[in-house]
Amino acid sequence: MKNSNSKQEAKFKQMAEGIIKLFESVSQDDFKSWNNINIGMPHNLESGKNYQGFNFIYLLSEMMCNDFTHPVFGTFSQITHKNGSVNKGAKGFPITHYNYIWKYKGKTVEYDYIKSLSQQQNKTVSEFISNNDDISGKGYFKFFTVFHMSQTSLAGEFENSTPSPFSLDALDMEVGALLNNLKRDKGLNLVSKPSNRAYYSPATDQVCVPDFSQFDEKEFYYAVIFHELSHWTGHPDRLNRQFGKNFASEEYAFEELVAELSSLFICSQFGIEKKTDRSAAAYLKNWLTIFKSDINYLIKASKESIKATHFILE
């Protein structure tokens, strides 16, 4: 019988292979398919919240590979709670949640529980944990299985659902405020000018993107900015990542994956229907051989992209 570590590795491998399957399914023509993808961001049936991190990119890849037309997933119990059922023979999708558990005098407390407390209670428990050497703790991954609504008896309720629209005017204000804050508080040097390339220069610590007028759609313009901002977070004075000097190197491939995933996450936070998802997969296909040789690349890159996302948004 497999031990828990082997089972955990098998789940992560399944998730990573789902993302690789998307990379393998796209062609370079998908660089031009900005207007073909409008499926929304994968979110939970019960809470309505978007999935985050590795779960987000994995479920998004499954949505695209399986031509799912809406973005709602739920666990067996959540579906049952909605008076629904899972179709016979349907295979669910694994998602993971990182938790932390502390032990003290035979009793245990989980981080998920601490998060549910009031602010004052949370502070009291956190201080108690910090000030007691007798408390031991460890982190672990919890796995759940979710099903897309098309795999359930609830499918009819979602057939005609469409992603919630967002206001481009409001988007301009929100992204503008974010960029102003980054310039003021974190020293961002962003230049947008007529150009044939977008890049981050570690030597000058400058982000350069083509002029807005060169983009057919506003959402893609912002997605490119977010991609380059993610590279910007890797500076030694920020998150200190290795960029890689050779285009074909593993370090370069890893950094590109981090930046593209981070851009995707930030787009989801702003409610952008990122119409370049499949284009992003085509872009990353250049390094597919490296990803397949070590699926931990995807897991590690997801973690780093979350750090980059938090650095930009917080």
From TrEMBL:
InterPro entries: Antirestriction_ArdC, ArdC_N, MPTase-PolyVal. Coiled coil: none annotated. Residues 184-303 form the Polyvalent protein metallopeptidase domain. It holds the Pfam family ArdcN. Residues 13-116 form the N-terminal domain. This is Zincin-like metallopeptidase domain-containing protein.
